[in-house]
TrEMBL record:
This is DnaD domain protein. Residues 19-111 form the DnaD N-terminal domain. Belongs to the DnaB/DnaD family. Residues 135-206 form the DnaB/C C-terminal domain. NCBIfam families: DnaD_dom. It comes from the Bacteria. It comes from Periweissella cryptocerci.
Amino acid sequence: MDQPKIEEYIHAGETTVNNYLLLRYAELGMTNEQFLIYLQAKRILDQGGTFPDLQAIANTLHLTQNTVANDLNGLIQQGLAELTNSKNANGQTIEKLSFDGLIRRLLDLPQTELPVTTAAISAPGSKNARQEVFATVESEFRRPLSSFELQTVGKWLDEEHFTPEMILLALKEAVLNGVYNFKYIQQILVNWQQNNIRTAAEVERHRSERKLQMGKNNNQKNGKPQIRIHEIPLVDIFHPENN
């Protein structure tokens, strides 16, 4: 095999697309052409770009630049894409494209039966468990989640196979500690997984054991050594025969 080509393949990286989107993008009103353009744009955005090179996408898909621009404008008009302007450190205006609207619209689609081969997409338990996770996270963070954050939660469910119950418990743990951070929630989930903690009861038991251990450590650290006072027998000096 050609070693340079192998290295080029590895260094090109990967673009992750949720299977739920692959199955239901047409229900959002996206055409096949728009979906392919979305994938190419997402690839560029995931690599750190703020706005995709329309001509580069056109060359890759063998389309004209006008076709790509028209399809992207269509996604914006449908509320599936958003275009914003901001200033950089040099005062220059930067256009930024995001697909947050697409993810929100996808999650608002009515529940439907998915093919058996995609059973992993359906969260265990309640049919609305998946939607509940996204809604609860947004509620606790008190703001709409970004597309990256939505994808992160999706990965927890679909790729790392954390249950909705455990994700909500980890979220609760983070909120109680006053840490509104996705990496912190991820660390909690990984820690529980490594300790084979998979239910609410096991989480509570682990929390109790940790508090007990912390209490012991604090006592050992802060407690003063106690001198044991032995009982001194009383001696009857007036009646020694009773001693």
